[in-house]
Amino acid sequence: MGLRGEAAIVGIAELRPERKPQREPRFTIEQWALLSKQALDDAGLRAEMVDGLVTAGIAESAMFAPATVSEYLGIPVNFAEHVDLGGATGAGMIWRAAAAVELGIADVVLCALPSSPVPPAPVSQPPASAARGRWQFGASSSRYGSPQAEFEIPYGSLAQNAPYAMIAQRYAAEFGYDPRALAKIAVDQRANACANPAAIFYGKPITIEDVLASPMVADPLHLLEIVMPCAGGAAVVVANADIARGTRHRPVWIRGFGERLDAKTPTYAKDMVRTPIADAARHAFEMAAVTPADIDMVSVYDCYTITVLMTLEDAGFCGKGKGADFISSHDLTFRGDFPCNTHGGQLSFGQPGLAGGMSHVCDAARQIQARSGENQVADCHRAFVTGNGGIMSEQVGLVLQGD
Questions:
Q1: Confidence (pTM)
Q2: Can you identify the CATH homologous superfamily of domain 7-121+226-401?
């Protein structure tokens, strides 16, 4: 059971990430329109061919996000989906779109993830009390009655830095911790960003010593091991086989997927260092009838360096507890023997909100289509992509392949 590989990514678009946005305020539905047009133009498809939409939340409507987007774009659809998986939302959108296409529900599906209004629009903002209720203390569930509000916030388990540092500390206690190997992830991805003019840190190489000398934010995580939020956005067009073969670029077939979530925060994780990506990756590889050894490049979610290390282990690219040795003995740049996050990853490309997860899909699709420019991987035909939401708790894996 699973995908037959008869749906393909045919168009991609990204708004260039910006640390300090220079453009006028733009609503998320405006960004949806811009991204959609760019992705459809990239594929060479007309807007009236679209009959499916996959959305996340939008700032202008607390409910009915797909209908709001459909109305704004003037596109009636047969398939409408709303995905809420944090950083795994982008990858989760792709397999849902592929499933709808293979079931014959839709022929062309738009998946887009704008960032929040950039810069924040002066109108249509929630009342201050509502904003505090949603994100107070940096928590996504601070409202009365939520387990996070009752059992985590009062004890200082807040936001993302502390929980990911807790995971890294637990990993160190069980398997040991090689700071230089973790720093090498950031260094190799920065090298990839230096070959990508769209990346936030284009032209700004770093060394392992730079990473280890950067401020300690949450022990053992240094500043240069932690993702930097920015503005941006991304969109992907998924189409059926007949349409895909007539588009402008090499179709990127969605051959396998897996999805797994078992908690929201480490407080309730059965095992903080053995993550749901293990099940998600296994399902994706089995569905695609491939193994990790068959993959030409990986684009794995990288909010922190420890996330990359644990993802590579749990997805089966190396043994558990062997990630540091694997990273130290492989070149993770686009020129290397294990290309990883060739766009620079979110650590050096930038994390434009939920679109940071979709940037990994775009990275892999560009490589398979041989459109990555200076950082093109030679003979790239098959990629593995991951999305990570919550605190290492919501995981999606994708296997993408060219003809």
A1: 0.94
A2: Thiolase/Chalcone synthase (3.40.47.10)
